[in-house]
Structure formats: structure tokens, C-alpha cells
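S.,

As promised, the protoporphyrin IX containing FE run. Input:
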Amino acid sequence: MLPVGADRYRLAIVREPESTENDEGSPAGVTLRGSLREAMQAPPTVYELVGGKNFFKDLVNRFYDAVETDPVLRPMYPRDLRPSRARLAGFLAQYWGGPPRYSETRGHPRLRLRHMPFEIGRAEREAWMTHMTAALGAATIADGTGRRLPDEIRVLMFEHFDNAAAFLVNKAD
Ligand code: HEM
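Predicted complex:
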């Protein structure tokens, strides 16, 4: 499993007044401990691997362009879809290891609670997943190369969407 989480860059500087040397090559009396050392060796997050926030913006834009003309989903969303685009892109960037911008503006995601005002049954779930699966299928890494999203990451993201969509169903058909 690839690591996610944005709090691994926390820096701990520990002063050691007694010592004149240490085994980490740091200046005498200062040792870098814990998360900075780990961060320097840690593998990249999914957020970094896909090219950062532009990947999520592109993915969500493709998804919402399809929602615009979907007869099941369109009536559920506000007239202006721009804030919805920003919220979903921010949430996904944060979830996959990017900066916690979503929570800074929206608080805890509480997705099930936030979806309660909308009736989500089989048709809504299928329509949502159809558009998101198509958006994932067309996704490329946001680094200017146009490289296709690697299958391992596509599968990871698909599974997250599929599980979350099942969890958000709140209407018995
Ligand atoms: C199962 C089918 C789904 C339907 C019908 C649905 C529908 C909606 C609607 C109508 C909104 C309100 C518009 C807005 O505030 O942007 C919304 C918001 C949102 N949805 Fe979904 N959604 C579904 C699945 C998902 C999934 C799978 C995820 C995440 C993996 C997700 C993440 C979000 C987020 C982050 C918001 C914004 C929450 C906020 O901050 O208010 N939704 N959704």
C-alpha cells in the first residue's frame, strides 16, 4: 500500500547540549529526529506520483463535465458547479496525501452526513460511478508528458470510489 497522509513532514529538532558530535552527521548539539528523517527516506505519496493538484482538478473537471448532462445526477447538484468541482478536487487531493486544504475550509469530511440531503440509490450510485470510471480511464499524469495513469494507481482510486459510493447509498430501492 502506498503511503498517504500529509503530516509526515513535521520537524523535530532536539537539542543535545551535552554532546559535541552525533551519529547523524548533524551539527554538534542538534539532532534531527523522527519525521524529517523519515520524510527524507519515505516513498512518494500518490498525490506526488500523479503530478499534484492539477491531476485532481483535471479528473474532477472531466467528471463534472459529464454530470452537467446527466439526467439522474444533474438535478441533485447546484446550478453553479464550480464550487462543487473545487470541493471534490480538494477532498481527493487531501485524501491521496496532498495538503489538507479541504479540511481547512470545510472541516472534517463527514461524507455520509453531507450526502444525507440527497437521495442516493442504485441509479444515482451507478451514474456517479460510470462518470468517475470514465474520467479515471482518460486520466493522465499531470506532469506535461501526457503519460497515462498507471494501472496500479487507477485500480487503487477505483476501489476507493467504489467503496465510498457504496457507503454513501442512503435509499433502499
Ligand atoms: C454515490 C453517488 C454520489 C452522489 C449521487 C453524490 C452526490 C453529491 C452531491 C449532490 C453533492 C452536493 C454538491 C456539492 O456540495 O458539491 C456532493 C458533494 C460531495 N461529494 Fe458526492 N456523491 C456521490 C458519491 C461521492 C463519492 C464516492 C465521493 C468521494 C469519494 C464524494 C465526495 C463528495 C464531496 C467531497 C462533496 C463535497 C462535500 C462538502 O464539502 O460539502 N461523493 N455529492
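Helices lie at 35-41, 46-49, 53-67, 82-95, 101-106, 111-115, 122-137, 151-168. The pocket of protoporphyrin IX containing FE is lined by residues 73, 76-77, 84, 87-88, 91, 106, 111, 114-115, 118, 120, 124-125, 128, 161, 164-165, 168 (CB under 6 Å).

- D.
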